[in-house]
Amino acid sequence: MMPAEIQIPRKLANQLLHLAQLSPKLEICGLVSSKNGLAQHCYPINNVADYPQHQFLLDASQQIAAMSQMRELDQELFAIYHSHPTAPAFPSNEDLEQSAYPAALYLIMSLNTKGILEMRGFKITQDSTQEIPLTLIN
């Protein structure tokens, strides 16, 4: 059963949006961990895609290191995030094809809107894509 909404700490959301702003021409990407169901920590990971302006691919060694650190801290994978420098915050066809973690939330940030940063969350499985509303908490 999908949750009606996902709560994200405001500080973490601001950190993710700031990371996207630091590289406005490239898709940034990484992982978010959780503990007891609450998003905790951001793990920025290098984008090693052939065309990082339009796609993302997590650096495998950094992804493994982040997942290992999560286990050591008794945390779980909560979300996979990336930015869309020139496209809306909605999964692209390539995002759908590359999704490999159906239990994780996919956070997409868009820099496409002038003056407003947008972040949306999705559950992506082989059969469906469902937007999950995000609620910021303090």
Number of separate structural domains: 1
Strand order of the largest sheet: 3-2-4-5-6-7
Uncertain residue segments: none
Percent helix: 10-25%
Estimated structural class: alpha/beta
CATH level-4 homologous superfamily: Cytidine Deaminase, domain 2
Describe the structure in your own words.
With 138 residues, this protein is α/β, with parallel strands linked by helices. It has one domain: Cytidine Deaminase, domain 2. 23% of the residues lie in helices and 36% in strands. The chain has 3 helices and 8 strands. A 6-stranded mixed beta sheet has the order 3-2-4-5-6-7, sandwiched between helices. Strands 1-8 form a two-stranded parallel ribbon. Strand 2 and strand 3 form a beta hairpin.
What are the defining features of this structure?
single chain, 138 residues, Cytidine Deaminase, domain 2, six-stranded mixed beta sheet, two-stranded parallel sheet
The gist of it:
The protein has a single domain (6-137), classed as Cytidine Deaminase, domain 2 (3-Layer(aba) Sandwich). The chain is 23% helix and 36% strand. It is built from 3 helices and 8 strands, in the order E-H-E-E-H-E-H-E-E-E-E.
Which helices and strands, and how do they pair?
Layout: E1 6-9, H1 10-22, E2 29-35, E3 38-45, H2 60-72, E4 76-84, H3 93-98, E5 105-110, E6 118-124, E7 129-132, E8 134-137
